[in-house]
Amino acid sequence: MKSRQRRRLPALWVFCALFVVVFFSPAARAEPIRLWHAQRGDEQKALEEIVARFEGERVELLALPTDGFKSKISAAVQFGEGPDLFLDAHNRLGDYDGRKVIAPVGDALDGSAFAGPTLAAVSLRGEPYGVPITQKSVALYVNTDLVKEIPADFESIAELAKALPAGVVPLAYNSQSTYYHAGFVHAFGGLMLTPDDAFAFVGPAAERSLDFVLGLRAKKVVAEDTDVAVVTNLFRSGKAALAIDGPWLSTSLAETRALHYRVVPLPPIRAAGKPPQPYLGVEAVMLTPRGAARPEVRALARLLASPEATKIRLERARTLPARIDVPLPPEDAFLAAFAEQAKNTVAMPSSLAMDAVWEPADRAIRKVLRGDALPESALSEAKRRFDDVRRPAPPPASRTPGLVVFGALLLLGAFSLVRRAKDPEFRKDVKRSLPAYAYVTHAVIAVGVLVVLPLVIGALTSLLGGSIQNLREVGWHNYVGLHNFVQILTARGGSLFATGSFYVVLLVTVLWTVLNVFFHVTIGVALALLLSRPMLRLRALYRVLLIIPWAVPSYVTALAWKGMFHRQFGAVTGLVHALNETFGTSLEPISWFASFSTAFAANVATNVWLGFPFMMVVTIGALTAVPADVLEAAKVDGASPWQRLWLVTLPMIRPSLLPAVTMGAVWTFNMFNVVFLVSGGEPDGTTEILVTEAYRWAFTRNAQYGYAAAYAVLIFLLLFGRTRISDWLAERREAREKEASAAASVKAAGGAA
């Protein structure tokens, strides 16, 4: 026995030694390099090929969706996780710097090989925070089948309309977007943002740029109500002779073999004396603080921006490089055009203030193009909104009142528990219920972590103030007490009934909820009554078809309905044209998002389509519980079909409908997807509801999370109060019914006696 143990001991020591070598050696402990990106298609393939040539540590690539890229990066890095380096546009540097997501790149950048504008674009406070790899801007796409000669200037584009086929617009671009309009502002000598972070989209240059675009629209040169998707479809289908867009448009055109096009720099504006100067975007490698401290991560960053990597991107993805020491393929006219255009651009500001420019500037441009305001007044209002968002952080408040209130609540709770603990019956009930508590402990923990804890954190966040622009001065934990609530309820010192104030948005939200719930219940109950008829054929098929709107994800339905409401190319406009051709009418297409009434109606129509199936399903289930003999007895007693419905059926299904109506009201009150995706708050934010307004304060207005959380708390209090009032009314109604039933029983008993 002892000999066997002696033979096993060496084997045990060998196993321990192998375990130590494998799991505790430097090679085993070395972490892989994590690289996150949002590239797709040929760009992603080029990136994978470049990374495969890296001879350092193992690299983990993770592709994230473009829409949520910034939020995922910020959240992961701030919690000590996430990538070591990532690829993103340089204009987000200010946001990342404010959140302390990025660090200076150090020796990862060799500045001698890059163009001057690209280096300036990735620098903050005179220090590089990114390694440029590509540069992008918009240029002019030309359909060579429709346009034989490139227009000499923008004013000459109007002459194209005479030679174009019917239904083809001369020029398509996203005229309602600040990004695409910035080039015209720069051409007239203006800016969107000054170097000291002041709002510059105001004054004569900005007004002249808007007047110029209005002139193009008046001459039918520019397609109206366009966005990126509409511009892509117009140019791809041959319905636009020219288009202003970036290199990303070519990806959508790759499969359209019948389309012949070329790209040229933007022509000059005769009235300005020079061509538009669009924004230049630089895609850069950015290092997180953890990654910047690792030499191998900086080595990978150097590789990603190296001449070898640049050549791979040129061959595989045809992206314009940021390096000046790598020549472009001489036969590639596409890259040559964007390289020429890049010489006449303005690097997009990477300041945090730029994030606050987009929303007010977009609204001003749309108001002017719709004819709702003159350029001067619209731009002045945009500046006021920008300045409102960029307010300095409120001063810290004393924590003493809050601590006193919190302590008083704790004492009150402790006193209540002590008083109840003295009650013998209460102690017996607790002991008797201990086995039951064991069965629900896991549920209590789950609800506490997933529901109660987020509510508490949100409520505490509402007591903090400031935005990401104030992060370095006051931090995220700037306690301001009830300052956010006071600002919301006083409309931030402005008119209580101005557009965007809490009371106006609340009124719109209540109107939105009431109308939707009314139509949900009315249509749902009517269809349920129809489908419950025993003699109706194909009932199962009808039920499946009518449930489809509820089964399809809401954001898909919202985007589809938004497309149908497009003034020029939507299905509703197509129906109007069909009616005009069939009946000889002269109906005009409706600009659905140009006025509050039509934009609100579009939102309501979309949400009614989404919501009535739920009420229909609930009503069908409730109708199965209505006794047939009760309806038969009412019919024998001479009740008409309407009386049987109103006096028998509806009262019996009401207990099942009330919870559904309450849930439907809560869902509709917070229906973010429809309002955000269909109208987007247009026109001028008048169709915003409380939840979309809270979203904008959190994610489009310099990340004012405390202010947005205060909105969320108010929403919770409103819904909680509404629910409690409904329960109180239901209890009172039930009590009155019991009293009436008891009185009737007493009366009947007295009559019998």
From TrEMBL:
It is a multi-pass membrane protein. One of its GO terms (biological process) is transmembrane transport. It is found in: Cell membrane. Pfam families: BPD_transp_1 (PF00528), SBP_bac_8 (PF13416). Keywords: Cell membrane, Membrane, Transmembrane, Transmembrane helix, Transport. The chain crosses the membrane at residues 400-418, 439-464, 502-531, 540-561, 590-610, 657-678, 705-723. Belongs to the binding-protein-dependent transport system permease family. This is Extracellular solute-binding protein.
